[in-house]
């Protein structure tokens, strides 16, 4: 799957990009018709410890899924986002299966 990683106002290191690619590739196990995904990484300027924001947008035929998570680290936010997307994709797959 093609994964576009966009970092807003900072540069992202290769290790984080590889981690994101790995987690997004695992989603294909749940729903194999994923076209591509866009991952937006943002750092909010607040005194709050949970200032890392990850938005993941997944493109599937006929629909798009958007998940936004805010955590202490980007890795944790990507992990939570992918878990949410797993549930969404499984639900979509079951919905399609019942309509056939």
DSSP helix fraction: 25-40%
Task: Kindly report the average pLDDT value.
Answer: 90
How far do the termini sit from each other?
Answer: 26 Å
Strand order of the largest sheet: 1-2-3-4
Question: What is the count of DSSP helices, taking H or I runs of 4+ residues?
Answer: 2
Major sheet description: 4 strands, mixed
Radius of gyration: 14 Å
Based on CA inertia axes, which overall geometry fits?
elongated
Oligomer: single chain
Question: DSSP strand (E) fraction?
Answer: 25-35%
What is the element string, with H for helices and E for strands?
EHEEEH
Protein name: Ribosome-associated translation inhibitor RaiA
Pfam families: Ribosomal_S30AE
Explain what this protein looks like in three dimensions.
With 100 residues, the chain is α+β, with helices and mostly antiparallel strands. Helix 1 (14-26) runs parallel beside helix 2. The chain starts with a strand and ends with a helix. The chain is built from 2 helices and 4 strands; from the N terminus they run E-H-E-E-E-H. The radius of gyration is 14 Å and the shape is elongated. The longest helix has 26 residues, at 74-99. Strand 2 (36-43) and strand 3 (52-60) form a beta hairpin. Strands 1-2-3-4 form a 4-stranded mixed sheet, with helices on one face. The model has no long low-confidence stretch (mean pLDDT 90).
């Amino acid at each position: 799957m093609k994964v576009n990683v966009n970092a807003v106002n900072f540069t992202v290191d290769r290790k984080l990009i590889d981690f994101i690619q790995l987690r997004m590739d695992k989603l294909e196990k749940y729903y194999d018709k994923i076209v591509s995904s866009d991952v937006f990484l943002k750092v909010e300027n607040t005194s709050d410890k949970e200032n890392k924001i990850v938005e993941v947008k997944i493109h599937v035929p006929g629909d798009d899924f958007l998940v936004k998570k805010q955590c202490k680290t980007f890795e944790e936010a990507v992990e939570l986002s992918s878990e949410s997307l797993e549930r969404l994709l499984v639900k979509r797959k079951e919905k399609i299966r019942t309509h056939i």
